[in-house]
Amino acid sequence: MSNEINYHPLTAEYYQQVIDLGNSVHGDGYLDSNKIVLWTNKGISQINGETVNTNFVALHQDKVVGFRITYSAKQWPIDQWCSPSLWQVPQEQCCYFKCNTVNEQYRGKGIGKKLLMLAIEAAKKQGAVAGISHLWKQSPNNSAVKYFTHCGGKHIASHVGKWNEESKQGYCCVICGYDCQCEAAEMIIYFD
């Protein structure tokens, strides 16, 4: 059995596997066929006639074992959960790291970091100089914040209840159920 992990841009052929993995890790209703198209399209832009996709999958023997969804700069909403006055870079030059998900059996092998690095390189091609994310502080052992910090992320602010509205619209948080009160750590990575 090969241990090789292959990385590819996220395209429609991987959508169902990404939906299944996302819902198994984050909770039922996290992803569906409408969200995956919307989220993926927010990470695709044309740069000098080239299609640049900031979304990636990690494959082991043609099975999706990880994925990263990243919105291109200017293709995501700056909302009440964002603190652009603290970012120290223009908001129109910030991409948004929507989610990074790795199958539990494949964690600790550098897959999440590789997916992040691929997304950063693509976002830089699109003109981004930094990336914002909201990290799930209730992840096991706060692993999401630890991973993002290890990759260069800097803490900006914390937001309780960031995912509450999604939970009222069908997302079932693995901790809170349909009334998610989990805390989000707003973090930024500056691209050098």
UniProtKB/TrEMBL annotation:
GO terms for molecular function: acyltransferase activity, transferring groups other than amino-acyl groups. PROSITE patterns: GNAT (PS51186). Residues 5-192 form the N-acetyltransferase domain. InterPro entries: Acyl_CoA_acyltransferase, GNAT_dom. Keywords: Transferase. This is GNAT family N-acetyltransferase.
